[in-house]
Each structure stands twice: as structure tokens, then as C-alpha cells.
Predict the 3D structure of the following.
Amino acid sequence: MRLTFLGTGAAGGVPLWGCGCVVCASARIDVSYARRPNCAVVEAGEVRLLLDAGVMDVAERFPPGELLAILITHFHTDHVQGLFHWRWGVGELDVFAPHDAEGCADLYKYPGPLRFRHLSKFETFNVSDVHITPVPLVHSKPTLGYCIEHDGIRVAYLTDSSELPPATATFLTEWKPHTICLGCAYPPGMEGRRNHFDLPEAIALSNDYPSSRIVLMHISHHLDEWLRAHPDALPERMVLGHDNETLDFSGVP
Ligand SMILES: [Zn+2]
Ligand SMILES: [Zn+2]
Ligand SMILES: [Zn+2]
């Protein structure tokens, strides 16, 4: 199994329109610093799944037949904006998502080829031989994380959460993911009500799963900027994800 990040940015991505910070400025010059909104593709045997659709041109990247399904974590725009173009297409594609009566704009009303299928928490389902367990997260909209298992490899994809519900934390403790892709939008010290983990919270969470590698995603320009000034702030088992980077789990015991 392997996972490729198509987008590792917070809403708006990096660079942000009009922002003059050092991170956004460098991302305009060197695309390797850019972060598109959340989106990843998982490949396991013959199965290819899309996780979130934050990248605007994502439909063009996967011709019919290349994806078995799309898994949507929640219906905030930065996670579903790539679906808006997709729905003008032809054919059929399953889109698994949390129960959310609103969805996003008129996606439910005019779904085109997208067949929305709503999931219940902790009810494991299979796409071919890939086993997927949706786990609830805490966010300003109904949000699911996805625990994905194939051939003994276990990867958790947890974005857009301000804490882990106790039942999700317990599930992860027992499930023992090899890798946790974790949404972490903010550096330490951001004031105000937050719907996302900041770095100290992400580090605290990582301590609860000592056998897991932690890969951060949903990263804002604030976090990138802070990490430039504090390059040694990440603990040993924690790394930053990057757009177009592939995590290969084939060598995982
Ligand atoms: Zn988001
Ligand atoms: Zn900026
Ligand atoms: Zn969100």
C-alpha cells in the first residue's frame, strides 16, 4: 500500500492570494513550497482510492476506471471543491462521506456521476480487499477520519479535528496504525477558537501512539513559517507531508 499527497495545505493552501509572508512569497517562486488543499490518493494492489478532493483539477487527473471510490472526510469547501467540476461528467463513482444533511452548496442536488453513500462511525466496510473503518472526529461539521488496512498495513487519515473523541482514541490504541496522517494547521500560540490541532496538540497526540509514524498535513502558511524559525521542533517520529510526496508502506513489518 502507498499514499501520495496531492494536497497538504490548510484551506486556501499555500501561497495565499495577496499574502506577503516569507512562506507564501517563496511558494510563488518555487512550487516545491506550495501546498494545495487536502487531497491524497491511496493505492493498494489493484485498488486506487481518493481521500478528499481539495485539489481543483483532481477530476482531470483520474480518467474513468482509475478510482474505485472517493472518501470524503467532511463537506467543508477545501475538502470537496474538486467534486464541483467532477459532477458535470458522465458515468458513476461512489463517494463515501459522513452523514451531513447539508453537504456543501448544491452537491447533493446535482451530483452528476457522484453517488454519495453515507457512513456510520466504526462500521468497517470493504472496497475490494481494502478494509476501511470510519472514525468520528471533532470539528465544526460532521467529520470522519479513515482507518485503512490492506495486507496487514494500517494507515489512519485524520484531518480537521480539534481533539480525538475518547472512542476514536481507544480504537486507534487497539488498531495500532503504522502511520497516522494528521491534520495540524497551526503553530503554538495561535489565539481564539480553533477547529484544528496546533503543533503542541499534535505532539501530545503522537505521544499516545508511540509505535506510529506521524505525518502532518492540512498545514497553514503560519505553521510553515513558524517551523522555518524552529527547525528542530518536530519530535523524532513526526514529519511534515509535502504535495506530490509518496509514503510507501511496502517495507513496513
Ligand atoms: Zn480543512
Ligand atoms: Zn502567507
Ligand atoms: Zn474543515
